[in-house]
Structures are given as C-alpha cells and as structure tokens.
Design a protein that fits this description.
By secondary structure, the chain is an alpha/beta fold. It contains nine helices and eight strands. Helix 5 runs antiparallel to helix 8 and helix 6 crosses helix 7. InterPro entries: CAF1_poly(A)_ribonucleases (IPR051181), R3H_dom_sf (IPR036867), RNase_CAF1 (IPR006941), RNaseH-like_sf (IPR012337), RNaseH_sf (IPR036397).
Length: 281
C-alpha cells in the first residue's frame, strides 16, 4: 500500500499494529545516491565494506521506504504479509524545524526516473521526519517560545520588535494597507478575517508593528493553506480570556505541526521498540 502525507496519520495505527504483531520485517529503500567516493575493493572484509557503504551514503536522503511485515499463520501454515511503501521527504514546516541540505547522485536519479519513480509525488506528498536529536531541539525551541508568549500574555505586556531594516516606500505602503484593513475589521462585527496573501518578509514587517498597533483588540497569526501558501489571519479579542483561548489554539496548532514534522520517525520508533524479531534489508 502506498503511503504519503495525505494518508499517513490515518494508516499509522494499523502500521504500528502490524509491526507489533509480526514475526519479521523486510525493508527496502530508495536513496538520492549511493556513494560519494568509490573506495570499495575486493579485499575489504564484510565489516570494512559495511562501514564504507554506511559512511559514503550518509549525506544522501532516503526518499522511499518499503516496509513489509510477515506473520506466520499457524492454522494455514503459511506466512502472511502486510506491505507499505512510504514516500518520505524532510520539509521545514515551520521555523522550529531545520531546513535540510542533501546530496544527489545523477546515476541514482537517472535509475529512479527510468524505473517510473514519481518525483512530483515525493516533493509534494512526501512524509516529513525528524531524528531524535532534531526532535529534542525542536521541542525545546517551541517550548521556550510558548513560555515567552504565555508570560507576555499573563503580564499583559507586549513589546513590539524593533525594526532596524530600511523599508522601501512600496513595502511601507503595503504594510500600511494591511493595517488599514485590520482597523476596518476591528470596526466591523466579524470575529475573524483573512488578510491578502503576502510574502514572508511583509508578514515579518506586519508582526513587528502588530502588538503596538492592535492594542490587545485583535490577535494576528500565520496559517498554512493546503497548497502550502501562508496567509495572515486576524481574530477579534474581547477580553484576557479570549487571548488565553486564542493562545491555547495556537499552542495546539504548533504541537500538531511538530507531530507532522516528526512524521515517519514514529514508524522507525515502533520498529526499534519491537526489536524481538529479525529485520532484513
């Protein structure tokens, strides 16, 4: 069964169950390359050969992970298999997730292309993942940011960022138009308003002035759309309770984004936790 970002969370419970109940696992991987240098020779021992292959492949990405769990049926005296084919691709979903660099080898990509590998599906629907060190750092950074936000909310003290950047007239006009639209929203009876799409630089300029100009009358946040575009959303705040409720929603959304970034690593963790059976590559 093919697994991508769109159906990964739905299939994850059954994948974990199959891993927990199986007798052995077979794994097959596709990578963006196999070796950075060709230093393997016929006189290498098995250990030397393995170490060279491992060392030479560390800068390449695994982009497809085939996982097949086998379980013995005692009544029928046969092995039954449950297979999954994962498209995996690390993406920086938010500022807390690292933006990865990796190597590609032309012969490997040519082989994959000739075998019908769907690169569009990989980049658009690939499941993200973080290793344990990356996850720990992301959780720590996210926790620190949430604590700072909670303290500012508790003390009702909002200090705008200092903008040391020179803003050209065109960008200044665009930012002013956005705040004019926010003021119109505050004067209306709407509870929420999606602002016109703008790039990350303009969003940063808006955030730098938002806390001072909104004066606790509205909350501003960035939301990701299904097509991966990002938009600013302004929400009315009527009281401190409203601001606390809005902060809880933001925290929930951030935690969900982190879970999605961890993604395929949860499958690897399930395999590691069930190492009572042999694994074949």
């Amino acid at each position: 069964m093919e697994v991508t970002r769109s159906n990964f969370l739905q299939l994850l419970p059954s994948i974990k169950e199959a891993i927990a109940k199986c007798d052995f696992i077979v794994i097959d991987c596709e990578l963006t390359g196999l070796n950075t240098v060709n230093n393997i020779n016929a006189f290498d021992t098995q250990k030397q050969y393995y170490e060279k292959v491992r060392r030479n492949s560390k800068d390449f990405l695994i982009i497809q992970y085939g996982l097949c769990m086998f379980r013995y049926d005692v009544d029928k005296k046969v092995y039954k298999q449950q297979g999954y084919n994962f498209y995996i691709f690390q993406t920086g979903a938010n500022k807390f997730v690292p933006d990865h660099r990796f190597l590609c080898q032309s012969s490997s990509l040519d082989f994959l292309s000739g075998s019908g590998f769907d690169f569009n599906k990989l980049f658009k629907e690939g499941i993200s993942y973080l290793n344990s060190n990356e996850e720990e750092k992301c959780r720590a950074s996210l926790s620190d940011a949430q604590k700072v936000r909670a303290n500012k909310l508790h003390n009702n003290s909002f200090t705008p960022e200092k903008c040391n950047q020179a803003i050209n007239d065109e960008d200044k006009e665009l930012v002013n138009n956005i705040f004019n639209e926010i003021r119109d929203f505050i004067a209306s009876d709407k509870e929420e308003h999606v602002l016109p799409k703008c790039n990350a630089y303009i969003r940063r300029l808006v955030y730098q002035q938002a806390e001072a100009k909104l004066a606790n009358k509205a909350s501003l946040e960035t939301r990701a759309l299904e097509n991966r575009d990002h938009v600013l959303v302004v929400t009315r705040l009527k009281s401190k309770e409203d601001r606390e409720a809005m902060n809880r929603k933001v925290v929930e959304r951030e935690e969900e984004q982190l879970r999605q970034s961890i993604g395929f690593a949860s499958v690897i963790k399930a395999i590691v936790e069930s190492v009572r059976f042999p694994i074949f590559f």
